[in-house]
Amino acid sequence: MAGKFNFQFTSDDRLRPLPHKLLLALGQNESVRHIALKLLGYILFYRERLQVETEVPDESIPFIPDLVELGYDLRPKLWIECGDCGTSKLHKVATKCSETEIWCLKRSPSEADGLLRSLSKDGVRKGRIGIIAFEAAFFEDLYATMAERNELHWFRGGFTGQNGLESPGLQFELNGLWFDAAFQVHRH
Q: Contact at 8 Å (CB) between 97 and 87?
């Protein structure tokens, strides 16, 4: 596949007015599956100030998040890691960004379980990190549907209680294929 993925967005959800487009490029040592997780994070957590791979203007935070929302004071309000992420990094982010909402997105429940075990084993402070686990089959179908140029129409999605959802999930159409998927939410 190509190194750049262009996504044209439309939305039926008045609470989630996605921007017209998003360009995601493969970074060094990044896979297309990582791009797919960034896409999911972007549409699920979309906020007006959400940015992709933006350096945090704080010398004490030497990491670049996959997705971040910076407040007007340029401190991270939301920090999202997609795919592989070491517990050491998460521990440092949780410590240095004590008021930041931190999330990790995983391709499957088994990957989420592995991260939860690692966080507990390494003594990372509880109550700071949220983990979203997508179903493996859904994720692989999404990955297989992605192309260099993509059209995504958002219908609805979010956590329990958002958009009338009884459980966490999302509904969208990507390149003419309908996706209606639930996901698991874990807290560490």
A: no
